[in-house]
Write a structure and sequence with these properties.
- The chain has no helices and 13 strands.
- The chain is mainly beta and 162 residues long.
- It has one domain.
- The strands form 3 sheets. Strands 1, 2, 3, 4 and 5 form a 5-stranded antiparallel beta sheet that branches. It has a 4-stranded antiparallel beta sheet with strand order 6-7-8-9, with no helix packed on it.
- The protein is globular and about 45 Å long.
Length: 162
């Protein structure tokens, strides 16, 4: 397995990575800090020809599958039940160049009613922040002056103790 280059995601006493086998197939590898053991987490059926990114949303492990026409957001609702993956939302393809976010836009936040999504992606060598209105299928660009290179991380307070 080869890590995707992204940092591990801490969740419920585990650190989780998106990795790829030598044949290019994706895997989610989870390391339990308490018992110091690894396991592979089952994944939803993303379909063919998608690229993946992993993050935390709504206190759940999240996988975003990106294609040339859509971005699907999947949540693992119950970490103990690996069959509990739910496709939360399908977003359209937002374009942009794929240098910095090589796998598509970075989803920063989804409103509790699933109506609005805050995303950022690179377009023409500049970061673009947008809010996508899921009900009306409209995009509103957020203008942030002098922010051509920035990244966002979701902060999760934790005290790791085996």
């Amino acid at each position: 397995m080869v890590p995707s280059g992204e940092p591990g995601i801490f969740f419920g006493g585990t650190v989780n990575w998106l990795a790829y086998s030598n044949s290019g197939l994706p895997a989610i590898i989870s390391f339990n800090l308490g018992i110091e053991s690894y396991k592979e987490i089952s994944q939803p059926d993303y379909g063919m020809f998608v690229k993946l990114t992993m993050c935390m949303l709504r206190d759940c492990l999240c996988i975003v599958s990106h294609s040339d026409s859509f971005n699907d957001v999947w949540l693992l609702m119950d970490y103990e039940n690996q069959e509990s993956w739910v496709k939360l939302i399908r977003l359209p393809y937002f374009g942009g160049d794929h240098g910095y976010y090589a796998h598509g836009p970075k989803i920063v936040y989804i409103s509790e009613d699933d109506d609005h999504v805050l995303l950022m992606f690179k377009e023409f060598a500049k970061l673009k922040w947008v809010v996508y209105d899921c009900k009306n299928s409209t995009i509103k660009t957020i203008k942030i002056q002098d922010f051509s290179w920035v990244d966002s991380m979701v902060y999760i307070e934790s005290l790791v103790s085996p």
